Every structure is written in structure tokens, then in C-alpha cells.
């Protein structure tokens, strides 16, 4: 989703998550939209040549939507949100598609709906509903939604709960959460032990990702 403004009820001097809450999903959404047609081909959903124009790519996505593909619904919703592939920008329609996608289990749809409802983007602001969507996504392993739950707790003055959420996302390799814990530690809002635990967990996650990338490079003969 496009970055949106941070909530106005955050304490003065909030950690770096204040602009990371909303922006967390923006690059991911756009990238997923761009990669989706190719992904369908790689997964064997389509046996036709790679679409060479927007109309063909849109037709491919719509075909999967008619088959109740949650990922396709999420991506078509994103096309409406951005006004991509020749579609008019239609945020209410995007929300409808994301709701359907979320009902079918899409983590990304839950994440984006969390942003939409939390900030009132295309829908009436409903922070509890937004948080509920982030909770659904976080329980399924979405690191950015987990971070956002921490940001909400921090904005409400619940530092201990914020650290608990950010500890989880930092240990998943999310540097924004690690930096938030660091700033809390420097301000006396988190303990040295908590920051040290976050650092170790983040380092382990990054090393594991690097190891996976090295193995993938070997497999590809790079």
C-alpha cells in the first residue's frame, strides 16, 4: 500500500516505527503485484506464453479470481488500489477484494486491511478492526503486522507489550523492530537484557537467511 501518515497519538520521541507502521507494506504490495503474473506461470497455473502487455496480465489475474484464488484476489485488489494494469483507481473495490482474499486466508490481505482500517484509508477508521487484521496476519507469521502491533502498543504507552511484539519480529530478521527496541533501551524503556536478546535473535535470523541464500546460489551454480 502507499505510505500513509502515522497515528497522531504516539508519544513525543517515539522510536523509528512511527513512520514504519504504514510504510511497512508499501514496497511489498507493489512488488507482489509486479511479480504475480510470472508467479502464476512458474506455479503452473497458466500454460500460455508470458503476458507481454497489461491487458494479458490482467486477464490472467482475473481468471484466477474467478477460481477463488486468494492470492489473485489480493493482487487484483492491489491493482485497483494503485490503478494498475489499465484499471481505474478504486479503493472501495480494492477493500472488497482484500476482504474476500483475507477470508480465504491471505496474510497480505489481512496486513493491508489492517492499515486501511487503522488509518481510515478507503474505509471508515476502525482501529480495533485494523488491529484484529494485524493479529490474524501476525499469527500466520507476517513480520510487518507483528511490528505494527508493537507500534500500536507503544503509541498507547504499553512499552512492555511493545517490546514483546518487537522482540518476535526482530528475531524474524526485521531490522525496524530491532532499531525500535534499541531506541527504547537508550531511553530507559527497555532493559539491557531485552536489547541483547533482540540483537542475538536478529543476528541469528540474518545468518540463517544468508545461509539459505548461499545454498540457493550453489544450487544455481553461481
TrEMBL record:
SMART domains: SEL1
Gene3D superfamilies: Tetratricopeptide repeat domain
Compositional bias segments (type: Basic and acidic residues): 35-53
Pfam family, any one: Sel1
InterPro entries: Sel1-like (IPR006597), Sel1_AlgK (IPR050767), TPR-like_helical_dom_sf (IPR011990)
Positions of region (Disordered): 1-55
Assigned protein family: Belongs to the sel-1 family.
Protein name: Uncharacterized protein
Amino acid at each position: 500500500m502507499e505510505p500513509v501518515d502515522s497515528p497522531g497519538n504516539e508519544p513525543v520521541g517515539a522510536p523509528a516505527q512511527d513512520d514504519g507502521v504504514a510504510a511497512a507494506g508499501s514496497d511489498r504490495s507493489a512488488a507482489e503485484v509486479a511479480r504475480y503474473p510470472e508467479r502464476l506461470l512458474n506455479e503452473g497455473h497458466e500454460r500460455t506464453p508470458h503476458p507481454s502487455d497489461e491487458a494479458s496480465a490482467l486477464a490472467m489475474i482475473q481468471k484466477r479470481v474467478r477460481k477463488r484464488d486468494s492470492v489473485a484476489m489480493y493482487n487484483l485488489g492491489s491493482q485497483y488500489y494503485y490503478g494498475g494494469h489499465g484499471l481505474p483507481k478504486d479503493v472501495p473495490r480494492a477493500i472488497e477484494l482484500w476482504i474476500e482474499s483475507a477470508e480465504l486466508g491471505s496474510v497480505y490481505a489481512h496486513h493491508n486491511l489492517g492499515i486501511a482500517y487503522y488509518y481510515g484509508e478507503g474505509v471508515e477508521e476502525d482501529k480495533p478492526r485494523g488491529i484484529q487484521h494485524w493479529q490474524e496476519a501476525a499469527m500466520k507469521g507476517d513480520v510487518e503486522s507483528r511490528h505494527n502491533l508493537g507500534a500500536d502498543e507503544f503509541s498507547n504507552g504499553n512499552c512492555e507489550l511493545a517490546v514483546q511484539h518487537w522482540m518476535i519480529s526482530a528475531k524474524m530478521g526485521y531490522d525496524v523492530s530491532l532499531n525500535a527496541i534499541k531506541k527504547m533501551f537508550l531511553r530507559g524503556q527497555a532493559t539491557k537484557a531485552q536489547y541483547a536478546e533482540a540483537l542475538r535473535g536478529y543476528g541469528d535470523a540474518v545468518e540463517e537467511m544468508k545461509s539459505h541464500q548461499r545454498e540457493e546460489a550453489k544450487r544455481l551454480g553461481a
